[in-house]
Amino acid sequence: MPGRSGKRTAENALIQRAGEHDPFQFEVKIEYPFQTMDKKPHFFLEMFFFLPISLGVNKLTYDSNRFYSDIHDYLRYKTPHMTFKQIISSKFENSPLNKIKNILSSADESDSIDGNLLVKESKIFAMIFRRALTDQFERIHKSLCSQDLIQRKDANTQLLKSISEANAACEGFRAFQSQLITPALSVEVAQTFRQIDELLSLSLEGYALQLLGDEARLSAEGRAALAALAAHEVAYRRARDYETLAQAGQTNEGYIYRHALLKKLAASVLFLEQQRVNIAKRLEPIAFSVAAAVSMAFATMVTFISARLAPVSWTLFVVLVLSYVAKDRIKESFRAVFRTWADRHLSDHKVRVIDPNTRRPIGWFEQKFRFYDLDEIPPEVRRIRAQGSSNLLIDREATEQVFRYAKITTLEPQRLEGIGERVDGLTDIIRVGMWRFMRRMDEPHRTILCFDEARDALTSLDAVRSYHINVVLRLKTGHGAAAQARYRKLRVILNRGGIMRVEEPEIGPISG
């Protein structure tokens, strides 16, 4: 596939980020590579949640329906990686600028232009442009913070070059807008290009303002170039009548809202659709039909035998009644056995992953939620959970409830087309809401009395009550004996006001 290089294995799957998303959700971000040695790469993620028993979260109060309403799972293509030099190069055919140019050039040979393809490429360009800006910012910021004076000088030189290349890429995109006023294209295409252009302007301004935060380390020339870039983009949006203009003394609520919408518009080209199927619900009617057939067969058999052995009498009557009672009990027992078996062995959902651009499935994943008893938790997970625990919690297991969320993802890279040919993997973003866990928490603000020796008086101090939810992540890649496992441990510290912070304790040896 174009744009890919080097051999990779399924073991390259990484938990890229694990931490707080907002005051009420924490987020895990995982990357699954496409180019592996497996035709169908296989990734098995498990998340074990250890919750204080005082939170009242257990099998009776928190079922799978509640959990799936609290978890949000986003699958999208990884943003294609390109440098500004590649983006503006006329020889790099994967550049969205070249693809847009080729689409518009096709109008010279026919009367029709693929407007949907133009919109898609404009969004891809915005995502690649924003990633290139982020990469440049991180590289330059790191060099500016270096103690090496030569490296800091090189960073200022690289800064000027990056501004020039970013402007060239942006101007290359803006030059297309004059070609969109044609009967061959709908008004929506031109509107989308305007919206993407507005997002590019905001991104350039943001890039300049972030680097201006390193003002003390910037050269005079670098600072002047960044200030000019920020001022130019504000003036550009004003001249184009774009709505994202921040104003002093205002709430700027509209600015934030529209900026978020523009980012979602561009990112929509990378997000994948999900078609969910409840496996247990599909099998349930079949299992219940079998149960009804077995119970009815039993009742009918008893009726036949009774009719042959005893004439019509009260004895026969009692036998028939009891047989029907037994029939109902057999049917309910079958249902209970099926539900228990399904709870342990069947996934809750199977979800097909669909590329919205081609409407083709490119893989699937299965999900499972269940509370675990202590003896069901894998020994390695228990040892990781125990690391760093307070010695006061001698009988910790008796004070915690444990549930597990499992997700098995299987990909089919050979089915990729279009944008999929320019990316090398998927990004899986899992956000878990903490709202339901906070309902029974105590008042977070406390007062501590203590004696102030300096003042020789009693005094009080403010304190905050917190709870700890420990999460152990295990990501297995590969199949069978060749499978490899990676572990991460998170400690979500929160109270009734929300998540205070997310810590990631270092994991020591986990062998038994």
Description:
By secondary structure, the chain is α+β, with helices and mostly antiparallel strands. The chain has 3 domains: about 10-80 and about 350-505, no CATH class; about 85-270; about 280-345. About 40% of the residues lie in helices and about 25% in strands. The chain has 11 helices and 14 strands. The chain has helices at about 65-70, 85-90, 95-105, 115-145, 150-175, 185-210, 220-240, 255-265, 280-310, 315-345, 380-385; strands at about 15-20, 25-35, 40-50, 70-75, 275, 350-355, 360-370, 400-410, 425-435, 445-450, 455-465, 465-475, 485-495, 500-505. A hairpin with a 6-residue loop joins strand 12 (about 465-475) and strand 13. Helix 3 (about 95-105) runs antiparallel to helix 4 (about 115-145), helix 4 runs parallel beside helix 6 (about 185-210) and helix 6 (about 185-210) crosses helix 8 (about 255-265). The longest helix has about 30 residues, at about 315-345. The relative contact order is 0.18. Mean pLDDT is about 80; it is low at about 1-10.
Assembly form of the protein: single chain
- With strands numbered from the N-terminus, the spatial order across the biggest sheet is 5-6-7-8-3-12-13-14
Structural class: alpha+beta
The figure for the number of domains is 3
- In round numbers, the mean pLDDT is 82
Uncertain parts: 1-12
Gap between N and C termini? 43 Å
How many helices in DSSP terms?
11
Rg from Cα:
31 Å
Query: Helix proportion of residues, in percent?
Result: 40-55%
Q: How many β-strand runs?
A: 14
Query: Major β-sheet, in short?
Result: 8 strands, antiparallel
Beta fraction of the residues?
15-25%
Order of helices and strands: EEEHEHHHHHHHEHHEEHEEEEEEE
- What is the overall silhouette? globular
